[in-house]
């Protein structure tokens, strides 16, 4: 047969050559008889060897019948087919590349063949084909990628090993740029990474590592946007190796692509945030996820708050077609209620599939932050009670960051976020509560949250019952007038916006409905708020709200809590000094506001008078105590007040006992407290203190020291103390009626139980 074929070649008799090949194919290789098929395969190989370099002209006719025999049920016949194809390819060399896809398809099947001899033969053929591809510069990568994308999803271990080996070969060829087509096969590679075979996992890990090195070397040619969602999916994989590898890729993508990754922020956060609460068993994943989270957060800039339709319309004339990021910005504009720009009313779906060009500076790409998606993800994580503490902290850090960087856009979501932020105050972790308070304080103080009407957002029960004079420092007006440009406004800035009063109302509602929260965390929350916001505004607004509180028992408890914070917290040092002298109209206004609410609790009212040096009024109040119902709780509070008088906060009060002549009502008030107390340790403590009060005649001096005291009394002379006393009596009568009603209901309940 070889001699016959050589003669036909010498005669250039192509028709006879084709006739010989046809006979070998049809009558032998494709015969029903197995021995005929073996003979046909041997004949085709011999024919190819005889043709030599001319075999390239007849490759289609030579290869097709051999490949058909790859599917033969007889393993020996499959081996013969493999051997025949090896000889055909060895002779043809580079000429077989146009038929590479069919050869690869056949080889991928033989790679998973159960017969070891067939598998061994296919490996020899595979190596030969790899050598040909490596040394050639005519490989059709574009035509091969669809087949590779299809075969990469095989579940067979040998097929997977075969696929990975080819990817490694193609990756090593300098003239073949597989990186351009990485989005086509990246998902499949991550699937193979989860294979049960350690060897295959290692091979896949090496392949992915090589791709990542190439990405770092040539970021300008990488289609980051097309692979972002693939990474998001695998960052949530149950397999630790897949998750860690995908997270490492995500970290590099965010750092290399920069703001190109912003449109995928919601997906990235969905994948990254749960990883932040992993324990030490997944420490590596947790650390990489943390870097991803921090890097992504840095991509959000103040300019994102100004990237509206007007800005997009300015960039349109300079561009021939929209980029994927601009297309992604349109749904956000629709959700915010802004009119879409002319000519861009519909989402261009085709633009999303366009390759993304990478500029030298990623920040120059016009990327619009998809804030709606991000907020939705953060909101879902806050509602999920099963997430870990570190995840909740990260969510709150994100919200705080967004309110700082993009306050105007974030306030569109405040009404939906507000309830869950308030509920988060009941969290078990102090760290979570601190971050939550930072977010709430930023909402309550940001100039972007000020409505045009100047009133807080009202939702029925949350509406302000009446005008309240809240002291707002002059700086607040300056910041408010600057609008969105007041981005440097921090939570500690003493400003108020429309949400401040709403926050105070809802916080008190929270304390009212969750008494345990008030008992365990109430003081902690209020003290932190006094650091984050203006303490005077907090106390002024809470006092005003409590003045209209219908639950008198809660009002009394809340006033007691506020009073304890006012008298003992280091955070309120300045506010105490402001109230101590009542020199300014603002301080006197604050005193009157606090006093009216403090009347819910008689002992706290007296302590407020002591703090503000209104000793005569304190004495008048104590005289009224004789008409009140003296309970164990009442005496306990008097006991605590005596203890407070001995604390450093009331040092000035104790020193004023030396000036007996000018402070007679102070001494009378203290004696009044002494008369209220039973023979207890507090009684002994106060009694010993009053025994130290000097004889006024011994304290006579030539100096007239009345100036300072008279000034104090004059400063507060415009306060109507008679009206305040009447208000105290009115409030206490309400409390008395409420106690009688509660006692009556309890008595009725007891009778029903007896019956």
UniProtKB/TrEMBL annotation:
Compartmental location: Endosome membrane; Microsome membrane
Alphabetic keyword roster: Endoplasmic reticulum, Endosome, Membrane, Microsome, Repeat
InterPro entries from the UniProt entry: ARM-like, ARM-type_fold, Vac14, VAC14_Fig4p-bd
BP GO annotations: phosphatidylinositol biosynthetic process
Principal subcellular localisation of the protein: membrane
Domain named Vacuolar protein 14 C-terminal Fig4-binding: residues: 515-693
GO cellular component: a single term: endosome membrane
Region (Disordered) location: 307-346, 446-488
SUPFAM superfamilies assigned to the protein according to its UniProt record, in alphabetical order: ARM repeat (SSF48371)
Subunit structure and binding partners: Forms pentamers. Component of the PI(3,5)P2 regulatory complex/PAS complex, at least composed of PIKFYVE, FIG4 and VAC14. VAC14 nucleates the assembly of the complex and serves as a scaffold by pentamerizing into a star-shaped structure, which can bind a single copy each of PIKFYVE and FIG4 and coordinates their activities. Interacts with NOS1.
Function summary: Scaffold protein component of the PI(3,5)P2 regulatory complex which regulates both the synthesis and turnover of phosphatidylinositol 3,5-bisphosphate (PtdIns(3,5)P2). Pentamerizes into a star-shaped structure and nucleates the assembly of the complex. The pentamer binds a single copy each of PIKFYVE and FIG4 and coordinates both PIKfyve kinase activity and FIG4 phosphatase activity, being required to maintain normal levels of phosphatidylinositol 3-phosphate (PtdIns(3)P) and phosphatidylinositol 5-phosphate (PtdIns(5)P).
Family as reported in the entry's similarity comment: Belongs to the VAC14 family.
Protein name, per record: Protein VAC14 homolog
Organism whose genome encodes this protein: Acanthisitta chloris
């Amino acid at each position: 047969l070889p001699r016959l074929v050589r003669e036909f070649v010498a005669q250039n008799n192509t028709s006879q050559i084709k006739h010989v090949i046809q006979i070998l194919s049809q009558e032998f290789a494709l015969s029903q008889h197995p021995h005929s098929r073996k003979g046909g395969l041997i004949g085709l190989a011999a024919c190819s060897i005889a043709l030599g370099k001319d075999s390239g002209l007849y490759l289609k006719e030579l290869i097709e019948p051999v490949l058909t025999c790859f599917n033969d049920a007889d393993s020996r016949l499959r081996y013969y087919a493999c051997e025949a194809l090896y000889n055909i390819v060895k002779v043809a060399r580079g000429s077989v590349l146009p038929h590479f896809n069919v050869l690869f398809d056949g080889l991928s099947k033989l790679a998973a063949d159960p017969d070891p001899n067939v598998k061994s033969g296919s490996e020899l053929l595979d190596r030969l084909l790899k050598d040909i591809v490596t040394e050639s510069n005519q490989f059709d990568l574009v035509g091969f990628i669809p087949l590779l994308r299809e075969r990469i999803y095989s579940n067979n271990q040998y097929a997977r090993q075969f696929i990975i080996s080819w990817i490694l070969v193609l990756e090593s060829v300098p003239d073949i740029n597989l990186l351009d087509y990485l989005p086509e096969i990246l998902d499949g590679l991550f699937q193979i990474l989860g294979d049960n075979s350690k060897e295959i996992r290692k091979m896949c890990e090496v392949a992915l590592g090589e791709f990542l090195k190439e990405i770092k070397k040539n970021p300008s040619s990488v289609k980051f946007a097309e692979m972002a969602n693939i990474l998001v999916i695998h960052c949530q994989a149950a397999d630790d190796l897949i998750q860690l590898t995908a997270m490492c890729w995500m970290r590099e993508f965010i750092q290399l692509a920069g703001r190109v990754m912003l449109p995928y922020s919601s997906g990235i956060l969905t994948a990254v945030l749960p990883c932040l609460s992993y324990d030490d068993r997944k420490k590596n994943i947790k650390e990489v996820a943390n870097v991803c989270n921090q890097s992504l957060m840095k991509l959000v800039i103040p300019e994102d708050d100004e990237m509206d339709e007007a800005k997009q319309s300015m960039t349109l004339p300079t561009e021939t077609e929209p980029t994927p990021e601009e297309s992604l910005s349109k749904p956000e504009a629709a959700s915010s209620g802004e009119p879409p720009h002319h000519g861009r009313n519909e989402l261009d779906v085709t633009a999303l599939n366009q390759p993304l060009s990478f500029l030298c500076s990623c920040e120059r790409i016009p990327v619009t932050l998809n804030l709606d998606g991000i907020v939705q993800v953060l909101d879902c994580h806050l509602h999920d009670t099963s997430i870990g503490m570190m995840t909740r902290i990260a969510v709150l850090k994100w919200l705080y960051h967004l309110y700082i960087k993009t306050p105007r856009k974030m306030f569109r979501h405040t009404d939906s976020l507000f309830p869950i932020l308030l509920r988060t105050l009941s969290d078990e972790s102090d760290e979570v509560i601190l971050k939550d308070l930072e977010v709430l304080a930023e909402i309550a103080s940001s100039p972007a949250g000020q409505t045009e009407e100047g009133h807080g957002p009202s939702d029925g029960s949350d509406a302000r019952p009446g005008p309240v004079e809240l002291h707002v420092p002059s700086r607040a007006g300056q910041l408010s007038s600057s609008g969105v440009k007041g981005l440097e406004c921090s939570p500690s800035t003493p400003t108020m916006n429309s949400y401040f009063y709403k926050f105070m109302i809802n916080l008190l509602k929270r304390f009212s409905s969750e008494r345990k929260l008030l008992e365990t965390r109430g003081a902690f929350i209020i003290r932190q708020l006094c650091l984050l916001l203006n303490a005077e505004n907090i106390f002024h607004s809470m006092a005003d709200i409590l003045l209209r509180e219908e639950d008198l028992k809660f009002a009394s408890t809340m006033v007691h809590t506020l009073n304890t914070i006012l008298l003992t917290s280091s955070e309120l040092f300045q506010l105490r000094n402001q109230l101590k002298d009542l020199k300014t109209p603002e301080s006197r206004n604050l005193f009157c506001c606090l006093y009216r609410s403090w009347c819910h609790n008689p002992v706290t009212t007296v302590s407020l008078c002591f703090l503000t040096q209104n000793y005569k009024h304190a004495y008048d109040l104590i005289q009224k105590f004789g008409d009140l119902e003296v309970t164990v709780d009442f005496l306990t509070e008097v006991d605590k007040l005596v203890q407070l008088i001995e604390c450093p906060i009331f040092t000035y009060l104790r020193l004023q006992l030396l000036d007996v002549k000018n402070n007679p009502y102070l001494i009378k008030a203290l004696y009044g407290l002494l008369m209220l107390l039973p023979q207890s340790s507090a009684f002994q403590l106060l009694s010993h203190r009053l025994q130290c009060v000097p004889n006024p005649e011994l304290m006579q001096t030539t100096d007239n020291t009345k100036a300072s005291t008279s000034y104090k009394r004059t400063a507060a002379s415009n306060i109507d103390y008679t009206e305040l006393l009447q208000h105290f009596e009115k409030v206490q009568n309400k409390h008395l009626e409420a106690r009688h009603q509660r006692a009556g209901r309890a008595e009725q309940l007891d009778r029903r139980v007896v019956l």
